[in-house]
Write a structure and sequence with these properties.
homodimer, Arc Repressor Mutant, subunit A, 7 helices
């Protein structure tokens, strides 16, 4: 059981942008190089994060990526739930399971997953960034807001 | 995020054997056909379940598989923890993540996973088998023990 690659990349992008200076644009190539990620995978994730309004992608010569400052308040459980494209921990339909419709496991797994998300919602994006870096972010944030 | 195929198959085998008559041996081919599973995958899982003592595999003409009756008391969280070969929800080392050793996400995911297993441990193998079938199992179990 592991997070989907899509979610994994999404978290790294959000964390990377959280730690970047708010007045500095980050490029896709910079992230791809930093995390050794295939550019095409990364672009799909960035498109999604941009659609969600969690990051801002600006085209053009001085363009690049930056975090929407409000995203620092995102709860990790909500991020995971949004980015994971599987909502079930087990696939009972492909191939159709003999126990389908007559099994209490799926419901138990579903409430277990909810318990996981609820636990993860105790943490915000702001919290999981390293403390020292976070101090920097706070002071930059203040400067940015001033 | 989904359970590994190995765990998925393991749960189905345990549930199938839970619902089978205790005096009737089940064959590998029967399970492979019932769940449309590749025989070689299935054999790996069965070897593991046998080593764990959760099932009994008997070779020979009248051989086959049966559940160790004590396995009905296995807690689902413990089953998942034993069969999942990944202990971490995210891989921070391949490739090595820029945040490695300086990131609070991994710890948060780990405690989230513990919360999931603890939740799943509220259910036993005995509980997730369909109630009607379970009634049958109980009476069979009594007959078997008599």
């Amino acid at each position: 059981m592991q997070l989907n690659k899509f979610t994994d990349i999404g978290l790294r992008v959000l964390m990377y942008l959280s730690q970047s200076r708010f007045d500095q644009q980050v490029t896709i190539d910079e992230i791809a190089t930093t995390f050794d990620l295939p550019r095409n995978h990364l672009i799909k994730v960035i498109t999604r994060l941009n659609k969600l309004g969690w990051i801002k992608a600006t085209r053009g010569r001085n363009g690049g990526l930056e975090l929407n400052p409000e995203s620092l308040q995102l709860r990790i459980g909500d991020i995971l739930r949004e980015l994971e494209n599987t909502t079930e921990l087990i696939n009972c339909e492909k191939p159709m399971c003999r126990f389908h419709g007559d099994c209490l496991l799926k419901g138990a797994l579903q409430t277990g997953l909810e318990s996981f998300y609820a636990h993860m919602n105790q943490h915000r994006l702001f919290d999981i960034v390293n403390h020292n870096t976070r101090e920097k972010i706070i002071s930059m944030h203040k400067t940015h807001a001033a």
